[in-house]
Design goal:
cell inner membrane; 2 domains; membrane; two-stranded antiparallel ribbon; 211 residues; 52% helix; elongated
């Protein structure tokens, strides 16, 4: 089987910020910078996997109370006040006929975060134990993780919009609770874990490039 040359074998480095591939010394005490965005060029991030594991574990710890604690207190038109968790809010929205909003909140707050946790731990495990397997598929998975990170705070935005809308129209009162803070922290930590993971590790080592 023909072994395809890697960038590191050719003396090339890809910038992790803007993606530009440039020629740079890989073994040198001098620091090299990207000519386009001026970020420091590093063949591999030192300790990137360890930081990704730490952020992933911290995000998972925050995600537990984010689902157990209420994300908001709701009181509508002088009625009784009740606290709503993420799943409880989804059930309430569905019961009230707001099926579209309930589906958006469920996907953004439950389904996608769960898939992100599983996908990230899958990448971290495979770069250590099965590095030559399905490289292209794992690289696409990492790009998906990066892309979906931009929408990770959607649930926090939805709560903010509900608070503003209900109080502006004097329909009742909604107050954010601790659950939304834990959820926001878990989202931020997951994004940090994704950014700490060096996707170039997927292409290290010997093995095929089959999907």
């Amino acid at each position: 089987m023909t072994v395809r040359p890697r960038a590191q074998h050719l003396g090339m480095v890809g910038c992790r910020v803007c993606g530009l591939v440039v020629s740079a010394p890989l073994q040198s005490d001098q620091r090299s910078f990207c000519p386009r965005c001026r970020s420091e060029l590093q063949p591999r991030l030192a300790g990137g996997s360890a930081r990704a594991w730490a952020f992933w574990l911290a995000a998972l710890i925050f995600y537990v109370p984010a689902n157990l604690l209420p994300v908001m207190d709701i009181r509508v038109l002088g009625g009784a006040q009740h606290a709503a968790t993420i799943l409880g809010g989804v059930v309430d929205l569905w019961r009230d006929g707001s099926h579209g909003v309930a589906l958006v909140v469920f996907v953004a707050s439950v389904l996608i975060p769960t898939v992100k946790y599983l996908a990230l731990v899958f990448l971290l495990l495979t770069v250590r134990h099965a590095n030559g397997w399905a490289r292209r598929a794992r690289a696409r998975l990492y790009r998906w993780l990066e892309a979906v990170g931009y929408w990770s705070m959607l649930d926090v935005v939805v709560v903010g919009l509900l608070v503003s809308l209900v109080q502006f129209q004097a329909l009742g009162e909604i107050q954010p609770r601790a659950g939304i803070l834990f959820f926001g922290m878990s989202v931020v930590l997951t994004m940090l874990a994704t950014q700490s993971f060096d996707a170039r590790l997927i292409w290290d080592g010997e093995g095929d490039d089959t999907v």
